[in-house]
Amino acid sequence: MAASKLAAIISRLESMITAGDGESRRFEKNGQQVATVNYDSESKTFKLNENKSQQVFEFDDVDLVAMEIYDLLAD
Predict the structure, then answer these.
(1) How far apart are CA 34 and CA 48, in angstroms?
(2) pLDDT tens digits, residue range 13-72?
(3) Is the pTM of this model over 0.85?
(4) Distance separating alpha carbons of residues 41 and 20, to the nearest angstrom
(5) Phi, psi at 68, each rounded to 5°
(6) 5-19 helix and 62-74 helix, angle to the nearest 10 degrees
(7) Distance separating alpha carbons of residues 68 and 9, to the nearest angstrom
(8) Cα-atom radius of gyration of the chain, to the nearest Å?
(9) What gap in Å lies between CA 39 and CA 41, rounded to an integer?
(10) What angle do CA 26, 47, 63 make, to 5 degrees?
(11) Which residues make Cβ contacts (< 8 Å) with residue 39, sequence separation at least 6?
(12) C-alpha angle 25/10/14, rounded to 5°?
């Protein structure tokens, strides 16, 4: 049985919460960056910058941002 990719994404996001404000993570597929996520501890939100479409999304739930990242990596 393979390890859960979603659990790995959630673990990276949760480490951002623990580290506090200003934390940023890059997510790559085949060596190409598909998204950057920033965490704002004051508003307790994640900001997802999608590289391909240049869109920015805000999430206040770690599960929702993790699912969006998973979808981007699966495409």
Answers:
(1) 10
(2) 999 988 876 789 999 999 999 999 999 988 999 999 999 899 999 999 999 999 999 999
(3) yes
(4) 6
(5) -65, -45
(6) 130
(7) 10
(8) 12
(9) 6
(10) 85
(11) 13, 16, 17, 19, 21, 22, 23, 24, 45, 46, 47
(12) 70
Exposed (0-12), middle (13-18) or buried (19+): which is 35, by Cβ within 10 Å?
Answer: buried
Token reading at 27 = 């997510």
Amino acid at 55: Q
Q: Which amino acid is at 34?
A: V
Tokens 């598909």 belong to 34
Tokens of 10: 């959630």
Distances (CA, A) of 60 to 7, 11, 15, 29, 30: 18, 16, 15, 24, 28
CB count, 10 Å around CB of 72? 17
